[in-house]
Amino acid sequence: MSKKTLAMLLSWTLVLAVILSGCNNAGSGGNGESGGNASGSGADGKVTLKFMHLWPAGSSAQQNKLVNDIIQQYQTDNPNVTIKQEVLENEQYKNKLKILSASNELPDVGVTWAAGFLEPYVKGNLFAPLDDLLNGSLGEKFIAGTTEAYAVEGKTYALPIELNISPIYYNKAIFAKYNLQPPATYDEFLNVLNTLTENGEVPIALGNKDRWTGSLWYMYLANRLGGDALEKAISGSGKFDDPALTQAAAEVQKLVDMNAFNKGFNGLSNDEGKSEFMNEKAAMYLMGTWELPNFTTNPDIPQEFKDKIGFFKFPTMEGGKSDINSWVGGPGVGLFVAQNSKVKDEAQKFVQYFVEKWGESSVTEAGVIPATKVDTAAVQLPQLYIDLLNELNQASSLTLFADVQMKPAAAQAHLDMIQALFGKAVTPEDFVKNHQAAIDKGN
Fold first, then answer.
1. What are the tens digits of pLDDT across the range 18-48?
2. What's this model's pTM, rounded to 2 decimal places?
3. What is the pLDDT confidence band of residue 140, given thresholds at 50, 70 and 90?
4. What is the mean pLDDT of residues 334-351?
5. How many CA atoms lie within 13 A of 101 on its CB side?
6. Is pLDDT at 274 greater than 70 in this prediction?
7. Is 200 left (phi over 0), alpha (psi -120 to 50) or beta?
8. Are 84 and 32 in contact (CB under 8 A)?
C-alpha cells in the first residue's frame, strides 16, 4: 500500500472513530427532468441554475428525496434562484455527460467521479476550480484525504459527497435454509456456491451490461491474489502480465462455469441484476455502500426484507498477498461547476450549500456514508450501517475502482474486456495483454 493511501486511511480512521464513538451501537420540477430551460440570470436578478445528477426516484429513492429536499430549501432561502434538474441513471448519465462536454454545454452543476474520469474534463477546461470553497469553512468539514482524488496539478475540480466500500450483501434467510455461514476464505465461498447451485438457488445477482459491476469481482480477485498488483499495473509502475492478474481473470471464468451468477447477467443492467437480489431470487450481491439505503432506510422496501440482509468481506485466498480488511472503494461521486457556466458564482454557492446539507442529512435520511464529518452522537443508526462504518474504520487498504483510476481510453478498454471475460469471449491471457496495450497508449 502506498504512503498516500496509508495516510488517507489513517485520516479516515481517526475521523470515523470520532463518528462511531457517539453511536449507541429538486427543483420545482420535482423528480422529473428539466424542461430544457437554459441557465442564466435575468435583468430582474432571477437566476436559473441547471443541475444534472444520477439519483432517480425509482432506483435511488432516498438520495432522490434528499436532493429534492436540499433544492427546495435552497430555493426557499434564495427566492431569486430556480434550480432545474435533469435526472439520469448511472450509465445514461455518463453518456449524456460526454455528449454535453463535446459541445461545451455542461450543466451549471453536475456529478463526476474522481481521478482518471475527472482528468479529461479538467484538461478540456470544462470544470471550474473549487479551491476557493475548500479554503473557506467548507474545507474543514471534509474527512481528510477525500478531496485529493479530485485534484489535478494542485487544483481541486470537484467536491466529494460520498465515501464507499464494497461488501458482499447476502440474504440471511437463504443462507440459513442451507445451514450456510458467511465465508471467510475463498474455499469456503466456493463451498457456499456449490451448495446453493446444487439446491437450485442462484448464488449471485449480477447485471454486467454496465460492466463496472463485473469489474468489482475482478478487482477483488486481483487484490486478494496480488495485493496492489492491479494498482501498479494501472499506474505504470507494474505490468498486467503479473501472474496474479492473469489468475484473477481465470477465476472469474471459473465462477461463470460454476453458474455462480444469474442467467443472462451479461445482458442485464445493474438495476436489472440487482432486482434478482431484491426479489430474493439470488443469495448474494456485491456492490458499494451507496446501496445501503435499500437495506436500511428506504421506506418503500419492506422491513421484513431489510431484516434479512447482512454482509461479509470478500474472502481471502490461499497464498494471496492481501488480507480480508482490504476493500475496493474510496471517495464516491462529487459535484463540479461548469467552467463556462453563466451563473458560476451562484453555482458555487449551491455546491457549498449542497455539500453541507448532504453531510448533515445523508446519514439519517438516506443511509449514505458522506465524505464530510458527521456528529452522530445523538442519532440512532441501523446496525448494518454501524457495522459497515466499523469496517471502514478498520480497513487496511482501499483500492479505488479500476475504471475511475484509469484514463478514459484505458477505462473503456477495461470495461469492454470485463464484459468479454465474463462472456468467455477472451482468454485470461488476452485479457491482460489487451489491458497492457491500452495502458501503454497512455490516453
1. 334 444 433 333 344 443 445 666 657 899 9
2. 0.78
3. confident
4. 97
5. 24
6. yes
7. left
8. no
Say how many C-beta atoms besides its own lie within 10 A of residue 205's C-beta.
28
Measure the CA dihedral 348/350/356/360, to 10°.
-160
Q: What end-to-end distance do the CA atoms of the chain give, in Å?
A: 25
Strand 282-286 with 202-204, pairing = parallel
386 falls in which pLDDT band (50, 70, 90)? confident
Q: To 10 degrees, the CA torsion angle through 178, 183, 188, 193? A: 50
**What SS3 string covers the chain?**
CCHHHHHHHHHHHHHHHHHHHCCCCCCCCCCCCCCCCCCEECCCCCEEEEEEECCCCCCCHHHHHHHHHHHHHHHHHCCCEEEEEEECCHHHHHHHHHHHHHCCCCCCEEEECCHHHHHHHHHCCCECCCHHHHCCHHHHHECCCCCHHHEECCEECCEECCEEECCEEEEHHHHHHCCCCCCCEHHHHHHHHHHHHHCCCEEECCCHHHCHHHHHHHHHHHHHHHCCHHHHHHHCCCCCCCHHHHHHHHHHHHHHHCCCECCCHHHCCHHHHHHHHHCCCEEEEECCHHHHHHHHCCCCCCHHHHCCEEEECCCECCCCCCCCCEEEEEECCEEEEECCCCCHHHHHHHHHHHHHHHHHHHHHHHCCCCCECCCCCCCCCCHHHHHHHHHHHCCCEEECCHHHHCCHHHHHHHHHHHHHHHCCCCCHHHHHHHHHHHHHHCC
Are 216 and 328 spatial neighbours (Cβ–Cβ below 8 Å)?
Answer: yes
Percent of the residues in the chain that have a pLDDT greater than 70, as a whole number: 89
CA 237 to chain centre: 25
pLDDT at residue 395 greater than cutoff 50? yes
Tally helices (H) and strands (E) across the chain: 18, 15
Residue with cell 430474493: 280
Q: What is the pLDDT of residues 208-218, one digit of tens each?
A: 999 999 999 99
Does residue 375 have a pLDDT over 80?
no
CA distance linking residue 192 with residue 198, whole number of Å: 10
The distance from CA 156 to its chain's CA centroid, rounded to whole angstroms, is: 19
Compute the distance between CA of residue 281 and CA of residue 262 in angstroms, rounded to an integer. 9
Whole-number mean pLDDT of the chain? 88
- Residue 87: strand, helix, or coil: strand
The Cα-based distances of 381 to 38, 55, 66, 363, 369 in angstroms read 41, 22, 17, 8, 12
C-alpha cell at 53: 445528477
